[in-house]
Design brief:
alpha/beta, 6-stranded mixed beta sheet, 6 strands
Length: 280
C-alpha cells in the first residue's frame, strides 16, 4: 500500500481509466452511467481531481470488477483522501508543486540534474532561505524554508530514497547568500554524499556541451511497479509531469550520459570540498 495520497490518487486514476477501456466504454457512456459529467470523469482519470470511495465502488461495479480486487482499489481510494504533511503548507506551496512533493514523498529513487542551484533535498536552511528570498520575496519565507527542510526527511526515513544528483559546476561557484552560507552548503553536500543512498556527480565545465543544457529535470521511480515513473519539470510558475514511458526512458538515458560525463562520486566530493575551502 502506497503511503502518499498523491500517489494513491494517481494509482486510482490509472486503474479506472484502464478498467473503463477494457470494458469497451467511452468517457461519454461511462460518465452518463456514473451520473457525472464527461469532464469530471476525464479529470479523475488524469488524477487532476480525487474521487470518493463510494464513487470508486460505483465505477468498479459498472466495469464488472468485484471481490478482493475491488476492495483493494477502494482501500487505495480511502487512502487518497488522507492529508499529506505538505497540505499543511498550502498557504505557501502552489498546488502544482504540492503535487510534486506528494510524488517525492513516496519515491524510491530520484535522479535529477541542476544547472543553477542546489536541489531542494540537499539545501541547508541558510541557502534555502536565500534562494526563496531571491526568487519569491519575503512573504511566507520562513514557512517555505520549513517545508523545504521537511521534504528532506525522505533521505533519512527507514527506507530512504535513493538520490542521484548531477550538478553543473556553476552551482559550486555561484555565491548564494555570501561566503559563509556557500561554505556551509558545499560542506553539507560533501558530507551527505557519503551516505549510501546519495550519489552526487559534479559536471565540470571541461566536459563541454551535454544533453541537458536546455533544462533541469527530476526522474521519480516508485517501489511498487504499479506506480509508473514520472519525469518532472518546473519553473517559477508551473510544473509539468511527464508520464509517458518514452519520455521517462529518454530522460533516463540523458541522466546516464551526464553521470558518465561528470566526475565520479569520489572526485565530485573532492571538488565540493575544494569549492568549500575557496569560500571559507
Amino acid at each position: 500500500m502506497t503511503a502518499s495520497p498523491t500517489v494513491r490518487r494517481r494509482r486510482i486514476a490509472r486503474e479506472l481509466r484502464q478498467l473503463r477501456e477494457r470494458a469497451g466504454m467511452t468517457l461519454d457512456v461511462a460518465a452518463r452511467q456514473l451520473d457525472m459529467s464527461k469532464s469530471n470523469l476525464s479529470r479523475i482519470e488524469n488524477a487532476q481531481i480525487g474521487i470518493k470511495p463510494r464513487d470508486v465502488r460505483a465505477a468498479l461495479a459498472l466495469y464488472a470488477v468485484t471481490g478482493a480486487d475491488a476492495e483493494a482499489l477502494i482501500e487505495i481510494a480511502r487512502g487518497a483522501q488522507q492529508r499529506g504533511w505538505w497540505q499543511n503548507y498550502s498557504d505557501v506551496l502552489p498546488e502544482w508543486f504540492e503535487f510534486y512533493v506528494g510524488l517525492e514523498a513516496e519515491a524510491a529513487t530520484l535522479r535529477t540534474y541542476e544547472a543553477e542551484s542546489v536541489p531542494g533535498l540537499l539545501q541547508t536552511e541558510a541557502y534555502a532561505r536565500e534562494i526563496y528570498r531571491r526568487t519569491a520575496g519575503e512573504e511566507g519565507l520562513e514557512r517555505k524554508v520549513a517545508a523545504r527542510l521537511r521534504r528532506q526527511e525522505v533521505l533519512r526515513r527507514e527506507s530512504p530514497v535513493q538520490l542521484s544528483v548531477v550538478l553543473n559546476e556553476a552551482v559550486l561557484l555561484r555565491p548564494v547568500g555570501g561566503a559563509a552560507v556557500m561554505a556551509e552548503q558545499l560542506t553539507h553536500m560533501a558530507r551527505i554524499a557519503q551516505s549510501p543512498n546519495v550519489a552526487i556527480y559534479v559536471l565540470p565545465f571541461t566536459a563541454g556541451a551535454h544533453p541537458a543544457m536546455s533544462t533541469p529535470y527530476v526522474i521519480l521511480q516508485f517501489a511498487d511497479a504499479a506506480d509508473a515513473s514520472v519525469v518532472y519539470l518546473d519553473n517559477l510558475t508551473m510544473g509539468l509531469a511527464l508520464e509517458d514511458a518514452g519520455h521517462v526512458r529518454g530522460y533516463s538515458l540523458v541522466h546516464e550520459e551526464l553521470c558518465r560525463m561528470a566526475l565520479d562520486p569520489a572526485d565530485s566530493v573532492a571538488r565540493l570540498e575544494a569549492a568549500s575551502r575557496n569560500f571559507a
